[in-house]
Design brief:
The structure is a homodimer. Chain A is of the alpha+beta class. Helix content of chain A is about 35%, strand content about 30%. The first copy, chain A, has 5 helices and 5 strands; from the N terminus they run αααββαββαβ. In chain A, strands 3-4-2-5 form a 4-stranded antiparallel sheet. The longest helix of chain A is centred in the N-terminal third of the chain and has 13 residues. The two termini of chain A are about 35 Å apart. Chains A and B meet through helix 1, strand 1, strand 3 and strand 5 of A and helix 1, strand 1, strand 3 and strand 5 of B. Chain A binds a DNA duplex through helix 3.
DNA sequence: CCTGAAAAATTATTCGC
DNA sequence: GCGAATAATTTTTCAGG
């Protein structure tokens, strides 16, 4: 299940995470091998599902997405079927960047990105509060991003 | 500051977020223009800082990073200088995937990724609790990822 | 499992319209 | 913004250690 990485694969991944478009030619210099094994290793890691894809990373700010809010959501029905229904519904909301089910209570931790506070309120009213089985939400608005990591859903 | 996107640029970005390695040739078919303007638009958006980079996306699970924890951190000193010190320190912790300062109290919301609960405890003890000005932390362990969005720091 | 180089394919750039 | 010609880069393949 979990993929064993040697030092070389680690270097390859590190370079690819920094720059998805680095040519194998250049990568092979970085890791100190010839192109053949480097290309082979990349394909291997892709096929194993370790590398799941390559994405352009956009600046949320330049896109006008200046607001980040964390929302804690409590649901009323915690049976498997209800949870799956909730999960399916929230997956369709593009403004939701992350969603984890939290241990302890049956709450969800959700990260939202919005253009403004007004836009945030609209998302909450139209797309979050209306999700199945939602009973209450508590929001935490981010003032400043210290470490930010995400690609943007357009 | 904020970049104005027409429908074409939107399509280009959407394709590039889905696949950072799509050739301009193919992209131009998708958006219904010839290669020349598409290449020009991409460069334009890169230069404007709208596209900040291209990254390989890795599977945290296949890397053995099975645990996600959100940690709320309270700091004792909220003067600018202290906060900047904290920010600089937390930026050096590779296990921290996200960190936002939250409005209201002066708390931070931090997302951690770890290999196990034992590993999580070690990160907390060695790298989070020891951060400057930290007075208390509260952790929320994720049971299940519904929507997950991150690249991994190796 | 790696090297090195030749060959093949793909991709990006340029430019007149 | 188009489209074709050109140029450059990149990937693939393979014999050999």
């Amino acid at each position: 299940m979990s993929f064993e990485l040697d030092a070389t694969n680690r270097k390859i991944l590190d370079a690819l995470v920094r720059n998805a478009r680095i040519p194998v030619t250049e990568l092979s210099k970085e890791v100190g091998l010839s192109k053949t094994p480097v290309a082979y290793r990349i394909k291997q890691m892709e096929d194993a599902g370790l590398i799941t894809g390559y994405r352009a990373i956009l600046s949320p700010l330049k896109l006008g997405l200046t607001n980040v809010t964390y929302v804690e959501i409590t649901v009323s029905d915690t049976r498997q079927k209800a949870l799956e229904e909730f999960n399916a519904a929230i997956r369709k909301v593009p403004e939701v960047e992350e969603c984890y089910m939290i241990a302890g209570g049956f709450d969800y931790q959700v990260k939202l990105r919005s253009r403004s506070m007004a836009h945030y309120r609209q998302i909450m009213a139209e797309k979050i509060s209306t999700l199945p089985y939602v009973t209450s939400t508590t929001s935490y608005v981010a003032m400043e991003a210290i470490i930010e990591q995400s690609w943007v859903n357009l």
